[in-house]
Amino acid sequence: MKKIKIGTLISLVGALVLLTGVSANADEFTNVGSLYDKAVSENIIDPNLYPKSNWEKDELSAMRPSYEQYKEYDSSINYESWLKTNNYGVMSDTKLPILQTKEEAPSNSMLRSSQDNINAFCRDTRAGDILIVGGNFPTGVIGHAAILNADGYVLEMPGGPNWFWGISDNNRQLPKRQWITNHIKEWTSVYRIRNTGLARQVARYADTHFYNTYGGATKNIHINYLVRSNLKVTNPNYCSKLVWQAYYFGSGNLPVMYGISDSVVAPTGLPALFTPAYAPYQVGRY
């Protein structure tokens, strides 16, 4: 069976084709609050989970600077389309704000200790799990995404400074305890498909196509980091594109992922790019 193709859905889930023909100017930021109101009216943002005052704070401190960096490599995009690509800073399924830190979360006194969180993450995660990290990273998109390519390891494209010019040899594998320790100050949401065998098949594909051709411990595949809209090109790559490719290509002919035209896939939109029969559920937040 061929992959299912959709077009208009992408605008609803934050993985849009980048729009062209609009240059940045000061007018883009004169009525930013109306973009929040629009996202609320379209049921993208839940104002109870992400009040306007909080969104405006994050927009000014994190979203806008990230967009202005992104604009340096793609002068055709405008702010509204960039926000849509990143689903206005919220997860497409839970609507939780991706930029919320643990310190800002409600009921902070009920949070597990950092060590408890690390231990729980290591206990609960397994091959094929998708990791979506909240926070502001030098990656060109809001948040970060990675995949467990084995029960004990995380595969990712971490990005870094000057990401918009490209970073050579950026793919890496880390033991999952080391990985979650690096991200313990941010929220990490773990997603999993219900078909365990398929998840392991995808993990194996990711391991042998994005790290080591025979599944060994030493990297012999070297992938450059660069955010571009050519979704099916594996090198260069970036964080959430690699995860999308792992499930799109690694699932064979099964209709697991929606086939989409060339676009930038943001971490916030990944869960909504699975077809209903294979939709991942959230295992937990760590």
Describe the structure.
The chain has 286 residues and is of the alpha+beta class. The chain has 8 helices and 8 strands; from the N terminus they run E-H-H-H-H-H-E-E-E-E-H-E-H-H-E-E. It has one domain (4-285). It has helices at residues 9-13, 33-41, 52-71, 79-85, 114-124, 176-182, 196-210, 239-250; strands at residues 4-5, 130-133, 144-150, 153-156, 172-175, 188-192, 258-259, 281-285. It has a 6-stranded antiparallel sheet. Helix 5 runs antiparallel to helix 6 (176-182) and helix 7 (196-210) crosses helix 8.
What class do helices, strands and sheet pairing give? alpha+beta
Shape: globular
SS elements, strand count: 8
Largest sheet report: 6 strands, antiparallel
What is the arithmetic mean of pLDDT? 87
Straight-line distance between termini: 36 Å
**% residues in beta strands:** 5-15%
Question: Helix tally?
Answer: 8
